[in-house]
Design brief:
Mean pLDDT: 91
CATH class of the largest domain: Alpha Beta
CATH topology of the largest domain: Rossmann fold
Radius of gyration: 23 Å
Structural class: alpha/beta
Order of helices and strands: EEEHEEHEHHHEHEHEEHEHEEHEH
Number of helices: 11
Strand content: 25-35%
Helix content: 25-40%
Distance between the termini: 31 Å
Low-confidence stretches: none
Length: 315
């Protein structure tokens, strides 16, 4: 899947602003971004549900939106809101979706039996979908989205309303699909889910502000993260917030996670000076506090990417 210059306007609002994407086959590609960043709008354009204002899209060798109808036979789409029929049983929902997706009748029964087993609904086939738990509804929606064995699966914040254990089980199913040959594009705002993806795109206010593997993106921030442990974390946080060069200081329990702004890579002295200012500020507030370098994580990547993207836009 490739997109070039993908743009969508709603009147004066630019929801997606000249986004370039390339998604390889048999990978889990993540869309990370805050609410309103353009994730859902981008997904709707990529799967042919929304016409771009500008740009070019090619999905599975098909031009979108010109060949959107043909594309829909080869893709699945799962939204964050449960969209099946709550007054139908688990099996009836799957039978209905098989008919909608054009699964041959001779194959429908066997396909549904396979999904019932894979998604653990053996003892719930006759249960009304509306009486299922959140995690069970999620599994049923995923089974319905793949009933026609799509080559490409779009998932729009599919785990936003379920518990952590159900999210973990859901992601195991996604990797099973990828191993079987399906390409998946998943939008999320959960950092632990983003870490699971083979590759990530970070969107902010409609712009692509980051793209790469989680390892590549965290490695790019090496030297910019610190952990401060203090008995006065709030006071230290307020002091660091006003310090030039500090991008964020987020409290985590009794410690602070500090992220610095990007400095010129060739100017090591500037980075050393910033580290010294951070340590001096911390010890001025709390002489017993410790300030040590930390490996960057995806939350650091997200904060840095959105900040740097907005700085570039302002410039």
């Amino acid at each position: 899947m490739r997109a070039r210059g993908l743009t969508r306007r709603f009147g004066e609002l630019v929801a997606v602003d000249h986004v370039d994407l390339s998604v390889p086959r048999q990978r889990v590609y993540g869309f990370l971004g805050p609410n309103g960043s353009g994730k859902s709008t981008t997904i709707r354009m990529l799967c042919g549900l929304l016409t771009p204002s500008e740009g070019e899209i090619e999905v599975l060798g098909l031009k979108v939106p010109a060949q959107a109808e043909e594309l829909r036979r080869h893709i699945g789409y799962m939204t964050q809101k449960f969209s099946l029929f709550e007054d139908l049983t688990v099996r009836e929902n799957l039978e209905f979706m098989a008919a909608v997706q054009g699964v041959p009748r001779a194959q429908t029964g066997q396909r549904i039996d396979t999904l019932i087993e894979q998604y653990h609904f053996e003892d719930r086939q006759k249960q009304l979908a509306g009486t299922l738990s959140g995690g069970q509804k999620q599994r049923l929606a995923l089974a319905a989205a793949v009933i026609h064995e799509p080559q490409l699966l779009f998932l729009d914040e599919p785990t936003s309303a379920v518990d952590p254990e159900s999210r973990r089980d859901f992601w195991e199913k996604l990797f099973e699909l990828a191993d079987a040959g399906t390409t998946l594009l998943v939008s999320t705002h959960y950092m632990d889910e983003a870490e699971r993806c083979h590759r990530l795109a970070i969107l902010d206010r409609g712009r692509l502000v980051g793209d790469g593997t989680p390892a590549q993106m965290t490695a790019a921030l090496k030297g910019r993260s610190f952990i401060v442990v203090s008995t006065r974390p709030r006071r230290v946080q307020h002091a660091l917030a006003s310090l030039p060069g500090v991008l964020s200081a987020a409290q985590i329990g009794a410690s602070l996670r500090v992220l610095t702004e990007a400095l010129d890579a060739v100017d090591a002295a500037s980075m050393d000076a910033l580290r010294e200012r951070i340590q001096a500020t911390v010890h001025e507030v709390d002489p017993d506090a410790s300030c040590t370098p930390s490996d960057p994580n995806l939350e650091d990547v997200f904060v840095a990417a959105t900040h740097d993207g907005r700085a570039r836009e302002a410039a």
